[in-house]
Specification:
This protein is α+β, with helices and mostly antiparallel strands and 103 residues long. The chain has two helices and seven strands; from the N terminus they run H-E-H-E-E-E-E-E-E. Strand 2 and strand 3 form a beta hairpin. The longest helix is centred in the N-terminal third of the chain and has 14 residues. The N and C termini lie far apart (31 Å).
């Protein structure tokens, strides 16, 4: 079983269990996104705040610049997160969170 498939299956199991906090890199490893796990460091976290809202938190020791990728809607702006900083992003229908990408 390849790594992407293992990560996707693990995320599915966590989602069924109700856990909503996952590292952004793991969320990005979904096979349908085209975003690889190496795109964003594991210390950048996302938390789902509903069907069309997500919080991005930088738990890295340095600043990072990432953008939220939204399927079926426009991607969000590139944003610089200082260590410990968070920002919430939302979008309209029919969009869905599709991962994070360096910018």
């Amino acid at each position: 079983m390849n790594v992407k498939r293992k990560v996707a299956l693990s995320l599915a199991a966590l989602a069924v269990g109700g856990l909503t906090i996952v590292p952004a890199s793991a969320a990005s490893a979904r096979t349908d996104t085209g975003v690889t796990a190496a795109s964003v460091p594991a210390c950048v976290w996302t938390k789902s705040l509903g069907a069309r809202k997500v919080r991005v938190t930088n738990k890295c020791p340095r600043a990072v610049r990432v953008k939220v990728i939204v399927a079926r809607r426009g991607d969000k702006a590139c944003w610089s997160y200082r260590p410990g900083a968070s920002k919430e992003w939302s979008w309209g229908r029919p969009g869905r969170f599709d991962g994070l990408r360096y910018c």
